[in-house]
Amino acid sequence: MADLGGTISVVTGGGRGIGREIALHQARAGAKIAVLARTKSEIDETAAMITAEGGTARAYPVDLVNRTAVEAVFAKIGADLGPVDLLVNNHGAFRAFGPIWECDPDIWWQDVEINLRGVFHTCRTAAPDMLSRGSGRIVNLVGGGTGTSFPHGSGYASSKAGIMRFTESLNDTTANGGVRAFAVDPGLVRTSMTELQLNTEAGQTYLPDVKQLFDDNINVPPSNAAVLIADIARGRFDRLAGRMLRGADDRDALERAMDDIVDSDSRALRITGVD
């Protein structure tokens, strides 16, 4: 069903895992896809998979921490494919496991910088053009530690909580101009990131719950997030802009609950009980 025809979509971290699934799903619905990541071979493969199915995709290797590189890539996407309608920030890093005094401080900071600064750079670059056209949607992926403590994943958690608040702030800045921002938690998906947690000494020591969850068959398919984000692109959940949606959500139930979610001001970062 080609109901995203005419949509130009940017998917970061699109070379594998959840990002590849997001890119493939949107392309099958008719969107033209710009696939971004640092590893050229992986995004080339995603783009080739899309074109083999008759879709349109181009691969753009980029370091999202590099602001000028991001600006240059978005300019090239605009020239190659057209103005961006949908930005999906799926990229992420999580390599610092353990109490903060056990973590390599440079790796801890790299997790934060890649996750949060990368999102800032892409949104800062894409939003003004969207606002000039009066339309656009931005989806930022969050995850473990966004709304709860994550003692042995403090860098990742801090970055994801930061992305959540950034998404709320961005949406409150741009919604009146027709540009809406959403946070999406894909759930626990078996990816190269979780494999690192499963197969390294630090991961096994400090994050043993991950293995237990997979042993208990808690493994959300990446297609859940892909389908949800496609519905966001269609405008189905515009009323929930600035809030967090989850890959595990029943989308029909979520749609029915939208008024209650907004009225109760849930699916957002809030401190209660403080005057």
TrEMBL record:
InterPro entries: NAD(P)-bd_dom_sf, SDR_fam. Belongs to the short-chain dehydrogenases/reductases (SDR) family. Pfam families: adh_short. It comes from the Bacteria. It comes from Martelella mangrovi. The lineage of its organism: Bacteria, Pseudomonadati, Pseudomonadota, Alphaproteobacteria, Hyphomicrobiales. SUPFAM superfamilies: NAD(P)-binding Rossmann-fold domains. This is NAD(P)-dependent dehydrogenase (Short-subunit alcohol dehydrogenase family). CDD domains: SDR_c. Coiled coil: none annotated. Keywords: Oxidoreductase.
